Amino acid sequence: MATEVIHLGALEKPAINPWVIAGTVMLATFMEVLDTSVANVALPHIAGSLSSSVDESTWVLTAYLVANAIVLPLSGWFSTLFGRKRFYMACVLLFTVSSAMCGFAPSLGGLIFFRVLQGLGGGALQPVSQAILRETFPREKQGMAMAVYGMGVVFAPVVGPTLGGWITDNYTWRWIFLINVPVGICSLLLTSLLIFDPSYLVRKSIKDGLKIDYFGLGLLATGLGALEITLDEGQRNDWFSSHAILAAAVIAAVALVSVVFWELRRKDPVVDFHLLKERNFAISTLMMFILGFVLYGSTIALPLFLQTLLGYTAMQSGLALSPGGLAIMVMMPIVGFLLSKIEARWLVMVGLVVSSIGLWQMSRFDLQVDFRSAVMARIVQSLGLAFLFVPINTAAFYYISKQNTSYATGIINLARNIGGSTGIAMSTTLIARREQFHQQRLLDHVSTLDGAYRSALQGFQQMFHAQGASAAEAASEAQRMIYNLVQRQASVLAFLEDFRLMALTFLAVIPVVFLMKKIRPRKVELGAE
C-alpha cells in the first residue's frame, strides 16, 4: 500500500492502492451495466412465468432503461447535494434491494416497478465510478484508469446475453436478479472502508443556498423518459403510425430542447451543458454516442442473424460474441499503456478502421457462414472497440477540471447509453424494413417467365414426387420451399445492409477526429494536475 496521505478538509486519510479502489467501484458498475442486457434472452421465460405476453414483458427492459437514462446526467448534481460517497452508497443499496425484489416479484406489474427502482439506483453508478477512477489515478496513469472502466462497461453488455441464457436455462430467470445481491453487499462494505470524498468536492445543501431546480429536473426526466420509450417501443408499434409513439417523440423533442436552454441560464444547473463548450469534450461526447450506437446495434444484430437464419440457440449465439468480449478485456490495458506513447487521436482512428473491417466482414456473411468466421469477425470488431473507448475517454477529460468531473461523466455516459438505445432501434427497424423491401424485389422474379424460377420449381417438384408426394402435393410443397428461400435471402440481405451501415458510420466519423485538440503523450506522462 502507498504511504502518502490524501487531505480531506481537516482530516487525513491513508492513501489506498488505486487498483484496490478500481476493483471496488467496478464491482457495482459491472453489475449495473450487465443488467441492461442480461434479461433480454429471458423475456419469454418471464412472460410465461408471470402469465403475460412477450410484448408486455418487454417493459421489463424499457422501464430499466428509462429510469437509468433519467439519473445518468444528474449524478454530478446529486454528488454535490449529498456528497459523492454517500450518494454512491445509496445508489448501490437501492440497486441491490430492488434487485432482490425483482427476483421475488409476484407479478409483471411488480417486476416492472422494481425494475424502475433498479434503474434509478443503477443510473449513477457508471458516471460516479468513472469520476472516482479519474481522481484516484495520477495523470500519467489516466489511460489505465479508463481501461479498467472500459472493461466493465464494454465487456458487460457483450457477456450479458450469454450469462442470462445460461442462468435461465439451468436455473430460473429470477436468479438473473438475485445474483446481484451478494455482489451489492460486497460493494457496499468495500466502499464504506475504501472510498472517500476528495477535498475539492464542495458539498452544497439547501441550507447553504442551493436551490433545487424542480422545473429543470422535470423537463429532463420527461424528455429522457419519452425519448427512451420512443426508441425502445418504436419498432414494435410501427413508429410514427402509432399516436403514442408520435406523442412520445414530440414530448421528448420539446422537453430536451427546452431543458438545454433552461439549464444554460441557471446558476446551479442540474446538468452543466457549459462543459460542451470545451472542444475535446464535445467531440468525445459525440464519438461516445457513435460508439454506443455501433456497439449495441451490432451486439443485437449478430445474435439475431445467427439465431433466426442459422438456427443457433441463445447460448450458441452468445458464445459467438463472448470471444469478442475477451479480446476487449485483453486489449484495454494494452491500449491504456499505448496512450503514454502515442497521441490519442491516432489510436481512435486505428480503432475506427479496425472495427469497420470487422463489421465489413460481417456484411459479407451468407447462409453457409461457419461459427469460426462469425467469431473472428466479432473479434476484429471488438479489437477496434478497445482502441476507441480508452482514448476517447482520456481525451474527453484531459481539459476538464476535477471539480467538474462528476458533471462531465454523467453527460458522456448518457451519450453512450442513448447511442446504444438508438443503435438497437435503428438496427431492428432497418432489418425489418429492408427485409420487406428485398422480399418484394425477389418475388418479382418468382414468375413463370423467369427461367431460373421454372428450373428451381421443377427440381423441387421432382424431389418431393420422388419422396412419395402426389403431383399436386409436390407442386404445393415446391412453392412453399421457394417462398421460404425468398424470405431467408431477403433477411440475409437486410442483415448485411445493417452491418455495412455500421461499418460506414465508423468510417464517416474519422474526419471528426482531426477536430480534437492534440494531447501529447509526453505531456500525458509528465503533466501536473
Multimer state? single chain
What pattern of helices and strands is seen along the backbone?
EEHHHHHHHHHHHHHHHHHHHHHH
Name the shape in a single word: globular
Q: Termini separation (Å)?
A: 22 Å
Which SSEs are present, and which pair or pack?
Blueprint: E1 5-8, E2 11-14, H1 18-34, H2 43-49, H3 54-57, H4 59-71, H5 75-82, H6 84-103, H7 108-122, H8 125-136, H9 142-170, H10 175-178, H11 180-194, H12 214-233, H13 243-264, H14 279-310, H15 314-338, H16 344-362, H17 371-397, H18 405-443, H19 451-466, H20 471-508, H21 510-513, H22 521-526
Antiparallel strand pairs: 1-2
Quick recap:
The chain has 529 residues and is mainly α.
Describe this protein's structure.
There is one protein chain. By secondary structure, this protein is an all-alpha fold. It has helices at 18-34, 43-49, 54-57, 59-71, 75-82, 84-103, 108-122, 125-136, 142-170, 175-178, 180-194, 214-233, 243-264, 279-310, 314-338, 344-362, 371-397, 405-443, 451-466, 471-508, 510-513, 521-526; strands at 5-8, 11-14. A two-stranded antiparallel sheet has the order 1-2. α14 (279-310) packs antiparallel against α15 and α15 (314-338) runs parallel beside α17 (371-397). The model is unreliable at 1-12 and 522-529 (pLDDT under 50).
Which short descriptors sum up this protein?
529 residues; mainly alpha; two-stranded antiparallel ribbon; 22 helices; 2 strands; disordered N terminus; disordered C terminus
